[in-house]
Amino acid sequence: MSPRVRGRVPRRKSNNHFIENHRVPTRDGLSLATDIHRPQVEGNPVEEPLPVLLQRTPYGKGSGARQEEAAFFTNHGYVTVIQDCRGRYDSEGGFTKYIDEGQDGYDTVEWLGRQPWCNGQIGTFGLSYAAHTQAALASLDPPHLSAMWLECGGFASAYHSGCRNGGAFELRQATWAFREALESSEARANPDTTRAALNKQNMREWFARFPWKPGHSPLSWTPDYEEYLFTIWGNDTFDEYWQQAGLCAMAHYGPFADVPQVHQCSWYDPYAAGTIQNYTALSRLKASNVSLIMGPWTHGANAVTYSGNVDFGRRSTLENAEEGSYNEQRLAFFDHWLKGADNDWVERPPVKLFTMGGGSGRRNPEGRLDHGGKWTGEQAWPPERVKETAMYLHRGGKLSIAMPQVEEHASRFRFDPENPAPTIGGNISSGLPIMEPGGFDQRESEEFFGCQEPYLPLASRPDVLVFQTEPLAESLEVTGPVTANLWIASSAVDTDFTAKLIDVYPPSRDYPEGYALNLTDGVLRTKFRNSWSEPELMEPGQVYPISIELYPTSNLFAQGHRIRLDISSSNFPRLDVNGNTGENPALSPIRLVATNTVYHDYGRPSHISLWTAAADC
Question: What does pTM read for this prediction?
């Protein structure tokens, strides 16, 4: 297919020279559809070699949002290139999520570097999957790669966070696969059969019928997408598959490109942990400038002030930042590193964090909790001003910095996989119509999948253990990693333990029952307690120490609030439900009830580890 050349296209709101669907070759002989936007003068492209900005996406290079980005950067003197990933929209080949992006990205960067209109300086940018594509190609270190801005993506390890989590599987990968199957080459080529069949599927009904079977699932009509899902869901040990470029940057930190880079994410994003892990590792290993930005949003929502049912105020967005709009901030970064602009980029603190909390606690005009918050500039993660603090679990559901003194004590609950604790918000993307991301009062309602009347607080469930502090005498900031270190036992050979950190508001006029705001959570499938690659079943009744890594967070617990830790064994439909047999729930339909125990006594002091600082109110 020959490229189509256009001049100014009004809908793109730019005056650039546009080449649509240029075919960029890959090493295995396929071609990738690529739109090239070049600055022009009087209808002719600028002949002077310029720096290039590249975005690689599976979501359609011709979408309005991507065209707007291309127009902005092209109008500011960049050749902007947007490319469809292999097997998506106008690109050739079959689509296998994540796996081909390293080599295809490398080949594209080096092809761009050879073009006469490129000055050899190539930056990459993009959100979500378009950040994964950046980390994948950076893992192969293409010579012409010069700078990167990765937004809400770029796996540190998809096994540990993003596809799987603590050994459990993130079911948003199933809703993603179904949504994108509707835009697959099969669906677009066969609207009356493939797409019509997909449109007839009710995902809420399918989520009530796990495990799915290959050839008999809601993805049966799109084999590439069904194979992808069953591969990552069925492969539950950390093996060579999970260490490929595109899935595991940490396995490639050595060759990972040593170029200026920004890692940006948010506290309610499924890539929050991986983003921070990439920043901390690469800022230590590489000589180039590496920055971190963490906001309070859900996935990719940096232009809105709220996450779920919680609002953080007008200054919480990147569009209202002191450094200018989001595009202006990215432009300052690329201008400095690709054009040598003398701006203030390197003078900015390497870490920019939004600490949630400190708002009025009232219900705002939009009906959301005014939680508030503020930005801070830091020199490191975690910030130098915080210190690690242990808060211990006590009988009676208490949580405090005092060590337990009793000789022996434990809390037990019955975990029935047929009645899992429902997901209410959290670090989710691509979850609709099954899951809703963000912060919410931890109370069941018809809004959330799996909830049942009479819609009581999650804390009232018999399979949820609740430990909370007394109302705080002074405000306390928590900013950093969060780990629940528990001593556990089970009647089963394998089970899950989940942990959730909650900011508990006292009762008020707007919230007479208070408000239990979820901040972060985590899970551990106990057969992976010692090794991700060599699972070990438990001996029923034997006591084991485990650690649950929750997502990092930054929150001000205001005076009068409580810090709460909820422990259970399920968080569905965000995570798949352990059948308590030791088998992968993606493959086994057998589910057994387990009695699970958490010890909290002098010899087995279960606790949550937080990084805290006295609040600067």
Answer: 0.95
